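User: Reviewer 2 asked us to show a designed sequence for the structure in our supplementary figure. I'm pasting the structure tokens here. Could you produce the per-position amino acids so we can include them in the response letter?
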């Protein structure tokens, strides 16, 4: 009986010490970076990109030495452009996004990530820059208020908490109910742990 209690005590202490080291490894930080956004329209990727940015906060919680869950709250500029002989049509779609990423650390610093993302629109604007000034216009449009999709990416995080990441977002929800437009965003991010 004493032997069982001793073994149980040692096992509990070992597990608690392991959890303490994972807690110390978990972090909160800020991040921001460049967006190269586009859209897939009816299965066609022939639209031009919209250049924008994203900025926000993240929380990385380690579940194991090499596995973590990272949640983020980001403001993100998305959308696309269509250029033709009539002029330039720009669709500006701005969201507050909540990515939930499952991260696997292949080394102590290099990781891969994947997971869902949910977004709420905060601004939608269509701009038409026609070849004739008479036709230039800016309109508020009413696309879907919510967006959801999946992220895949990779990155590098230093021991001091500086991280650099690259991610691609595949929107799965239609931007408009009437049309089959789905968001696509390439993000390059720089982050800092607090």
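Assistant: Here is a per-position design you can include in the supplement:
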């Amino acid at each position: 009986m004493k032997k069982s209690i001793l073994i149980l005590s040692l096992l509990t202490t070992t597990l608690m010490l392991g959890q303490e080291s994972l807690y110390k490894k978990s972090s909160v930080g800020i991040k921001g970076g460049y967006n190269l956004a586009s859209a897939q329209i009816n299965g066609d990727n022939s639209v031009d990109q919209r250049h924008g940015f994203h900025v926000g906060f993240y929380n990385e919680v380690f579940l194991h030495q090499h596995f973590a869950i990272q949640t983020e709250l980001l403001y993100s500029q998305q959308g696309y452009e269509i250029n033709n002989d009539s002029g330039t049509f720009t669709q500006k779609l701005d969201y507050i996004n909540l990515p939930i990423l499952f991260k696997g650390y292949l080394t102590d610093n290099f990781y891969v990530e994947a997971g869902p993302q949910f977004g709420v629109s905060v601004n939608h604007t269509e701009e038409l820059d026609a070849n004739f000034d008479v036709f230039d216009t800016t309109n508020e449009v009413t696309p879907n208020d919510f967006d959801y999709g999946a992220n895949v990416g990779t990155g590098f995080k230093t021991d001091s908490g500086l991280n650099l990441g690259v991610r691609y977002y595949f929107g799965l929800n239609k931007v408009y109910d009437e049309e089959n437009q789905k968001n696509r965003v390439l993000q390059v991010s720089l982050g800092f742990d607090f």
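For the response letter, you might also mention the following. The chain has a mean pLDDT of 85. Helices lie at 2-25.
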